[in-house]
C-alpha cells in the first residue's frame, strides 16, 4: 500500500517535475535502466537479484503479471533449458522524471529474437515501457514496470506461421520427437476422426511410434487465418503406410489452431476428419 500511495503521489506531481536526464540522480537512474537492458540480453540473473525490489511486480503486454520470485525463477529455467534466443535489445526515446527518491522512466523498446532451430528467421518486436524506481539506502531499486507491444500485422506473422506448419509436416515424415516437442504447446490436444482425444505426450508417442510407418504423407490446400496472436490453419492431407503391419491409405481434412507466444508459433489444438472413399458405382 505504501508503494501504491507513493506512485499515486508521483503521478500527481508530474506537473511540478522536470526531465532529469542531466541531473546526477537522473544519470544514476538512466545507468541502472541501461544496465537492465544489458542484463536482460545476457540473461544475468545476479543483476536482477540486486535491482528488483522485494515487492517488485512486472506487467506484460497481455495483462499478465509476475512478482520478483517468478521473474527470477523463469530466468533460471530459461537459462537451463533455452526456448528462444534474444539476440538484440535496445531502448530509445528514454526519459526520466524525478520526485525525491522516486523516478519514472519511459521509453521505447526494440528486440530481436529467434527460435532455437538452426538458421531460424529473426523476429522483431517493439513497444513502449514505463518503469518506476525508488532509491533505498543509496541504491536505485525497480519497484514495478509495465510494457506494451506493437501489434503485428497478419502479413508480418504469416511467414513464420507457414514455416511452423511446414516444420510440423517435416516432423510427421521424420518422426522427430524433438521437433514435435517444440511445435506443440504444453496443453496441446488432438482429436481424431473417431473422437479420440490425445494430449501432447500421447500424440507425440503415437506419431513417433515404430508401429506407424508412412510410405507417403503430404498436406495440400493450406489456408491460414490470423487473429492477432492466434491463427487457424485448414487443409487436406493424404497418407499411405502401415500400422502394426496392416496397410492403410486415407485422405482427409484437418483444422489446426496455433498461438503466437514468445516469438514463435505453437500448435494448441488439432482435429482431423477422414474423407469417405468414393464408390466406383
What does this structure look like?
This protein has helices at residues 2-12, 24-42, 45-51, 68-80, 154-174, 177-183, 200-207; strands spanning 52-59, 65-67, 85-99, 102-114, 123-136, 139-149, 184-191, 197-199, 212-227, 230-243, 246-261, 264-274. The chain is elongated and about 80 Å long. The protein is built from seven helices and twelve strands. It is an alpha+beta fold and 281 residues long. 31% of the residues lie in helices and 47% in strands. It has two domains: 2-149, Nuclear Transport Factor 2, Chain: A (Roll); 154-274, Roll (Nuclear Transport Factor 2, Chain: A). The protein starts with a helix and ends in a 7-residue tail after the last strand. The strands form two sheets. Strands 2-1-6-5-4-3 form a six-stranded mixed beta sheet. Strands 8-7-12-11-10-9 form a six-stranded mixed beta sheet.
Give the terminus-to-terminus CA distance.
Answer: 78 Å
Indicate the radius of gyration in whole angstroms: 25 Å
The overall number of domains is 2
CATH architecture heading of the largest domain: Roll
CATH topology of the largest domain: Nuclear Transport Factor 2, Chain: A
The main sheet orders its strands as: 2-1-6-5-4-3
How many DSSP E strands?
12
Largest sheet: 6 strands, mixed
How many helix segments?
A: 7
Class of secondary structure makeup? alpha+beta
Helix content: 25-40%
Q: Given the C-alpha coordinates, what overall shape results? A: elongated
**Order of helices and strands, N to C?**
HHHEEHEEEEHHEEHEEEE
Low-confidence stretches: 12-18
Strand content: over 45%
The average pLDDT score comes to 90
CATH class of the largest domain: Alpha Beta
